[in-house]
Amino acid sequence: MRTHHVRVHRSDEPLPRERQLAHAIATVAAERIDPTPEVTDMVVNRVIDNAAVSVASLGRAPVLAARAQAQAHAPSSGGRGATVVGSAQRTSPEWAAWANGVAVRELDYHDTFLAAEYSHPGDNIPPILAVAQHTGADGAAFVRGVVTGYEIQVDLVKAISLHAHKIDHVAHLGPSAAAGIGTLLGLDAATISQAVAQALHTTTATRQSRKGEISTWKAYAPAFAGKAAVEAVDRAMRGQTSPSPIYEGEDGVIAWLLDGPDGAYDVALPEPGEPRRAILDTYTKEHSAEYQAQAWIDLARRLGRERPELRDPAAVESVVLHTSHHTHYVIGSGSGDPQKYDPTASRETLDHSIPYIFAVALQDGAWHHVDSYSPTRAARPDTLALWRKVTTAEDPEWTRRYHSPDPNEKAFGGRVEITLTSGDTVVEEIAVADAHPLGARPFARADYVRKFRTLAQGVVADAEAERFLDLAQRLPDLRPDELDGLTVTPLTDPAAAHAPRGGIF
């Protein structure tokens, strides 16, 4: 990897474009490198994973609304259009990226990478796939584009914290998706550089979308970034330029949105010819909840089965989850959000409440993407009583491990201390989720396939599910016409029974 030192430059201290971070990202994206078999296999896994969580969300209101917006936009004249999951109608690629991006993110159930910043790298797939279908690319080109999208997002997430300045994490997604589309289309570095800068400029927003009463926009935010990336690449291909330098400028992102005029970052990007392997550092979710809750769900399920008395709030005095700074302040009691203890809160809020998640997983010994969030489940009196006894506390050691550059030490769990009314205590810890590469049951191809089949059950015909799985597992060899098949048609159209409200389009 080559480290790029990125700092603010005054306007009277010009920074040549070839020394700007946007150009360095573009240089990586412009180099055609065929991925290793291991990386290709993981791309296949994540395409299956995205389809699984999209199928599970097809009937949800945000997904139906996004789909209706997309269907109002016919394929543009530049290509054949792109598919929208759940629909037989092709749309313009930026709108397909929008609708599919919402479907992928709606249940917060796909892959993740956590470092200096948070991310769901699978959010790169919808915009890259939409452009691939629209332009008639083949499976190999699509795979290369996805590999770039993951590489750039992971590299930015390792180096630059956005949340520390209350900037939403999709500010890293706009540039990574633009870079991935650039690789897909075989664009030169100069063009990709303009697209990366435009995509960043148009996708910076505050983290209020993930604070307090979390709204349906949580699923739309990454879809918006993907749509913006498609549009940015289109403009760049037409010769249009972008704010420069977007990261390093005196009035740029670092100076005004991040660490300020004295801010500086070291961003490591692949050397020329170096394999792009960042996707292998990422991990998916076994459970539909914020990633930092994954290990806690596994621990709570086990404790509930082994110690059923812990499920009774009358037997429990307190539950303290000693964990990382991120977990405590983002999904824990350190957030200061009373909504995290509110049984009437939105699903989007509850999946960012580790006190709620731990209490329900402890009592049920299981976790379900629908049932665990139902209003009746959240309002159960014994759950309310236990839930309000669960708090979090930052532990410096778990914070250190969270940020460790050593993948064998990096951890997203913590230590639970349960004090019983009898005076006894139960102390257990877990470092990573069972499905994590270093967990008790690391996810492999069979697990991704099982996740897809489980979530597709009753929603998609068995023959349709098997058709998709066969196609996805031949991904690098797909012809352009076969790439169109990377979508899923449900048994019944959920829009027929739950037609969304009309809008402008």
Automatic annotation (TrEMBL):
Q: Name one GO molecular function term.
A: lyase activity
Boundaries of every MmgE/PrpD N-terminal domain copy: 19-262
InterPro entries attached here?
Answer: MmgE/PrpD_sf (IPR036148), MmgE/PrpD_sf_1 (IPR042183), MmgE/PrpD_sf_2 (IPR042188), MmgE_PrpD (IPR005656), MmgE_PrpD_C (IPR045337), MmgE_PrpD_N (IPR045336)
Record-annotated MmgE/PrpD C-terminal domain positions: 287-475
The record's similarity note reads: Belongs to the PrpD family.
Protein name stated in the entry = 2-methylcitrate dehydratase
